[in-house]
Amino acid sequence: MNVARALYSLLTWSAQPLLRRKLRRRAVAEPGYAHAVGERFGRYPAPIDSLMPHSSTDPLGRFVWVHAVSLGETRAAAILLAQLREQLPGMRLLLTHGTATGRAEGEKLLLPGDVQVWQPWDTPGAVGRFLRKFRPAIGILMETEVWPNLVAGCRQRRIPLVLANARFNETSLRKAQRLSALARPAYAGLAAVWAQTQEDATRLAAIGAPVRGVLGNLKFDVVPDAQLLERGRDWRTRTGRPVVLLASSREGEEAMWLEQIQKIRQKSPQALVDHASAAINSEASGDDLPPVQWLIVPRHPQRFDEVHQLLQRAGLSVSRRSTWAAAPGRADVWLGDSIGEMALYYGLADVALLGGSFAPLGGQNLIEAAACGCPVVLGPHTFNFAEAAELACAAGAAQRVPDLAQGTAEAAALAGDARAHEEASERATRFAATHRGAAQATARAIVAMVQPEGGLH
């Protein structure tokens, strides 16, 4: 163990009481963080023993381990897993997460014989207990999650650990270079890396990662839930007015949106008087646009109540998805307070404003919106999905604006123009379809590592 990793290990070991405290605090808003806390430190209950392979030599008995830290990574993992199960019949999945939302979403992916636990905290002890317990045939880290002791533990046990659907922006590279003594051995210790874009591949190689190919973004292979999508479209038709969605909004963006709405109210005091009709009039270039129904879906479920209160304090009536029965309720703003229903929300919306792109947070994934035929308006901050954003803009599936003020105006204008909206929706659908294929290619590369002679080894 080099000096940098020894110091890092001491720090992570010393931070364990702080981690427990943080989990207790987060569990107040999200009870999932109080579940099976011991797993985070490599402590597993006896019932898991009954699910363990009877023999480490059983070619299809050893786990294929996938680590998907949060919700977005878990959804990407779901796309990859469908291909892995097809190419590795009899595969047993070990699925790990770091967040409660990721774990809740991951439960949907489990089949009999699969196991789901928390990612071990990155101390040598917790990592060692995790790897001894489950003895995976291979580990697949989704997108960004590279931990020094986890990589070292796998190398010591000759467990190939790979990074799939890898993305690595300039900020991440600079941070890794500042901590080069720790980061470089971690990235170099991976068995393979498959990047989303050539730019990601170049940056990963610069920090020592063994890049084996650029296979594209798994999220292009998403297949929206047909029932949810159709229900959303049906509700949109019955709404009778254009619907604009603030999708996966992050901290501060709802307040930015409210600032624009308040300006509209000051210019047109009657714009929000009739709450029953929910007619919020937007303006662009001094011209009134058609009435718009606004829909906000926060990125993180722990913020649902917070956003609801923010909207109510601003004097807006709010109808929450959790209260809808046959159709959305009448209100100034609809609030999407559910998990796993983005296809419904994109079907319900004519246009989506991309959350995370108006505050300097790097943007959220726009690919699912495009796959649902929902055109997107982007803010200036899309560094987390830079290539996808640029490709979408070039294909006419998205348009970029400098701020949320122009974004709300552009989105409302597009939503209210039936012909322009139909053309943009068709371009979005074509854009998503054009870039598919990463899931099959990534699964094939993984299978080649774990099944070089016809079986897991």
UniProtKB/TrEMBL annotation:
Compartment(s) of residence: Cell membrane
Pfam families associated with the record: Glycos_transf_N
Catalysed reactions listed for this entry: lipid IVA (E. coli) + CMP-3-deoxy-beta-D-manno-octulosonate = alpha-Kdo-(2->6)-lipid IVA (E. coli) + CMP + H(+)
Domain of life: Bacteria
EC number: 2.4.99.12
InterPro entries in the record: Glycos_transf_N (IPR007507), Glycos_transf_N_sf (IPR038107), Kdotransferase (IPR039901)
Active site: 73
GO biological process: lipid A biosynthetic process; lipopolysaccharide core region biosynthetic process
Free-text function comment from the UniProt entry: Involved in lipopolysaccharide (LPS) biosynthesis. Catalyzes the transfer of 3-deoxy-D-manno-octulosonate (Kdo) residue(s) from CMP-Kdo to lipid IV(A), the tetraacyldisaccharide-1,4'-bisphosphate precursor of lipid A.
Entry-linked PANTHER family: 3-DEOXY-D-MANNO-OCTULOSONIC ACID TRANSFERASE, MITOCHONDRIAL-RELATED, 3-DEOXY-MANNO-OCTULOSONATE CYTIDYLYLTRANSFERASE
Protein name listed in UniProt: 3-deoxy-D-manno-octulosonic acid transferase
